[in-house]
Amino acid sequence: MLITALIFGLLGSFHCVGMCGPIAFLLPVDRSNPVKRVLQILSYHAGRLLTYGTIGLLFGFLGRRLDVFGFQQHISIGIGVLMILAILLPSKIFSRYNGSKFMYKWVGKVKSALGAELKRKSMDSLFTIGFLNGFLPCGLVYMAVFGSVAAGNAWQGGLYMVFFGLGTIPLMTTATYLGNFLNTTLKQRILKAIPVFVVVVGVLFILRGLGLGIPYISPSEMVAVEQVSAKHSCY
Q1: Alpha carbon of 118 to those of 3, 123, 152: distances in Å?
Q2: Whole-structure pTM value
Q3: Are 134 and 50 in contact (CB under 8 A)?
Q4: Contact in structure between 137 and 103 (CB atoms under 8 Å)
Q5: Residues 150, 75 contacting (CB under 8 angstroms)
Q6: Residues of the domain holding 50
């Protein structure tokens, strides 16, 4: 599933360039010193990966708590179904029932802090910008968080989110160097491919939860692990 997270991040980064691209374009990097610029960009990505990894640890831990009660298979299937529904159902349905409004104040504070850091040019400011950037609302990050919950434990959840973040690095770095380098037609084609891949990932999670005995995709050992976990939770 880590390879899936990496590919998810790579494809999702085309969306990231559209949503977070302005931040990448405005990064206060030293364009006169190539070596320093590389270090600053790496510092920015390190901040993002720290945020993603921390979020993955927390939600992976949540998944582990649920797994103790023997729900791992059900979690994987449920998350796969949610991913598919998020793509197939009209967005108005989710916007009507989502609980993101209470986060507006928090997001506003994050954006204010980002604005302040973008005015600085120190190495630690690039790290802070990346760290704060990771907290901005993003549908694809939410999808990756689903994957971290299904990972089954904190470390796997953290790794899942880190691999997702690693997948976004190539394109976000290119955006930092070249700015708005994708033409409209190419962007539209790539954005159309993202929902298809999300559905594919959702199907993989469902297959993983079914435990059909397909190596690497739907291992039957998952059923045995869940049964043992449920048995031990009774003592």
Answers
A1: 33, 11, 37
A2: 0.73
A3: yes
A4: yes
A5: yes
A6: 2-232
Residues in the chain: 235
Q: Tell me the C-alpha distance between 76 and 205, whole Å.
A: 5
Number of domains, the chain: 1
Which own/partner pairs from 52-55 qualify as long-range (CB within 8 Å, at least 24 positions apart)? Answer: 52/134, 52/141, 52/144, 52/161, 52/162, 52/164, 52/165, 53/158, 53/159, 53/161, 53/162, 53/165, 54/158, 55/134, 55/141, 55/145, 55/148, 55/161
- Could you tell me the mean pLDDT of each successive run of 10 residues in the chain, 235 residues long? 80 69 76 87 94 93 68 77 81 55 67 82 85 83 83 87 92 74 64 78 81 69 46 45
